[in-house]
Amino acid sequence: MKKIIGIFLMGTTFFASHAQTNSENPLLKKWIGPYGGVPAFNEYKVSDFKPAIEFGIQEKLNEVDAIANNPKAPTFDNTIAALELSGKTITRIATVYGIYRSNLSSPEFNAVDTEMSPKFSEFNDKINQNKKLFERIETLYNSKESKKFTSEQQRLIWLYYTEFVREGAKLNNADKEKVAEINKQLATLFTKFSQNLLAEEHDQYVELKTEADFDGLPAEVKNAAIAEAKERKLGVMGCVANTRSSIEPFLTFSNRRDLREKAFNIFVKRGDNGNANDNNATLVSILQLRTEKAKILGFPSFAHWSLSNKMAKDPQKTMALMESVWTPAVEKVHHDVAEMQKIVDAEGGTFKIQPWDYRFYAEKVRKAKYDLDQNEVKPYLQLENLREGMFWVAGELFNLSFKQITNVSVYHPDVRVWEVSNKLNGKVVGLWYFDPYARTGKRSGAWMNSYRDQQKLDGNVLTIVSNNCNFIKGTANEPILISWEDATTLFHEFGHALHGLCSNVTYPSLSGTSVARDYVEFPSQLLEHWLATPEVLNKFALHYKTNQPLPHALVERIERAANFGEGFSTVETISSSLIDMKLHLTTTAIDPHKFEKETLDALHMPSEIVMRHRIPQFGHIFSSDGYAAGYYSYLWADVINADAYEAFLEGKGPYGKEVAKRLYDTVFSVGNTIDQEKAYENFRGRAPKSDALMRARNFPIVEKKN
């Protein structure tokens, strides 16, 4: 499953600096060293954050005030470009702060995070509600002289104007104060939700006490469980951690139905245990505050406000898309469950398929129907080989080359760094940091971070991006073997990284992945297709013992089974997407349990599946506003992605140079310098067609009536 991009979008707030001086606090220092400077992770301490944030915020405020109060008439350079160049210190600090938040969480850091989050929000509002600043932006937006600006400059003016208006720049003072207070409260609640969820994941687990508890587990899953127990010093043979990367393999392979149920329950009840980490009251408060904010800003619901800067624009358009895919997906699930139930009955089972049985019996059906066993494929999927495969694909599509370096500091020994260059001219375009392994203090899932966006306004600034995953290390000196699903996620997140690395724009606010949320998943989902190409499988899917590539017969079986499980993954994801949208279209207070049950009942949700993210653990929509009323973006982008890949198939195949160059020129390199609908039309020659998605998932295509 695709995960969200982990770009940590920081607001800022004003609080006076004290205690440390500039020279003493390493977070206040400019990044120095090679590649235009890099973070000095070896120097930072958690205690540095608060004074650094307070200083950086004040500096940014001073710069903004100087721009807003400039006595000269507003010009692009003295207003928009000046804003783009402001706040360099707080931007660097926020980057490191976000890295700690996602990868190095600790009680000490959480205390700082709880204190600073509302202050970041408060400062963000000070910028958005600066009347004199907005007047200068509005003057440029309405100026007849704007036609003299470049298309990129016009786009940037439009972006500043629309975002300021969207955040309340045109409100009266009383309403501005209300919005600012709501944002401050939301920031505190987002942090609380995230910390609760992380605590549930770290504090809960399933103990494996006897050899029988390991029954059915492949060697690498067993070894990972043993290593997890040792790390936790539990005094038992093994442990299944409460994270997706540990739970899903256990549910797929464990022969112990009782332990599968236990593992399933701790995972789906994260944030919903009636304890100190329960998220229900927190999320209800978030929803109420969002509704209040949307109404003040003039929108009928938070969903309408959220979609006001997305491609979809209208919540009903997203609902129509989701509902069009929902019915065939549910029908596919019913068909698959019927096949699973036959196996249960044949084995003498006296139970109906339950959610903790689904992956286990789906795997049996896969083996019976397609003669394809995940454990047969997994020995060929070595993490490091697949990483090299991603590099190779980036070279074929975008002429990028990767060279590992050791002359920059990292925030954890697990992290490695590569220099990224254009292999045609040797020019360095950026750095790629890779943090692949799960550990205490790191949030679950997989994501991409942007440490520094490419731009040309302040010199030729190189991109710095990272990919972060949660693979289980297992036994030392043994290769990390991953599932096909995890390999797909690996390519997906690398697609986000390439979107950043290929950026070729002037202004940082328009750089790389800074596009509409329901478009940003398109480049990443598109890259997933290249994992299954024969070129990658033959070169990089090599058996960890024999070094032989995947046999052709096995590749054919993989291809035949390519759409197996699409019903499950589609229902699992769209149910979460529909719940998300319906939550944010609702303007009255809800009971999370009642809302979830009634909504899913109305959708005729198959009883054998749960949402990919139940409401109390839905970090995508409750740890920030990023994906709130926006989880549909994965499906929306998948329509675009399926249609785009057909452009390659209609040409000379996945590695066709002409289509790849057009993809680079119109999508990967342009960032947000052009409206995304127009950008896609420039690539495809037309708008995307949803029929491609139905073909890709082997769902029936319903003919549209005139």
Account of the 3D structure:
The chain is α+β, with helices and mostly antiparallel strands. The protein is built from 27 helices and seven strands. The strands form two sheets. It has a five-stranded mixed sheet with strand order 3-4-5-7-6, sandwiched between helices. Strands 1-2 form a two-stranded antiparallel ribbon. Strand 4 and strand 5 form a beta hairpin. Helix 9 runs antiparallel to helix 10, helix 9 crosses helix 14 and helix 17 packs across helix 18. It starts with 48 loop residues before the first helix and ends in a 10-residue tail after the last helix.
Short description:
The protein is of the alpha+beta class and 706 residues long. Helices cover 54% and strands 7% of the residues. It contains 27 helices and 7 strands.
Write the layout of secondary structure elements.
Elements: H1 49-68, H2 76-85, H3 88-103, H4 107-128, H5 131-142, H6 151-166, H7 173-203, E1 205-208, H8 219-232, E2 238-241, H9 244-253, H10 257-268, H11 280-296, H12 302-306, H13 315-346, H14 355-370, H15 374-377, H16 383-398, E3 400-405, E4 416-422, E5 428-437, E6 447-452, E7 463-471, H17 484-501, H18 517-527, H19 534-540, H20 552-560, H21 566-585, H22 592-602, H23 619-622, H24 633-650, H25 657-668, H26 676-684, H27 691-696
Parallel strand pairs: 5-7
Antiparallel strand pairs: 1-2, 3-4, 4-5, 6-7
Helix pairs in contact: 1-2, 1-3, 1-4, 1-5, 4-7, 5-6, 7-11, 9-10, 9-14, 13-14, 13-21, 16-17, 17-18, 18-24, 21-22, 25-26
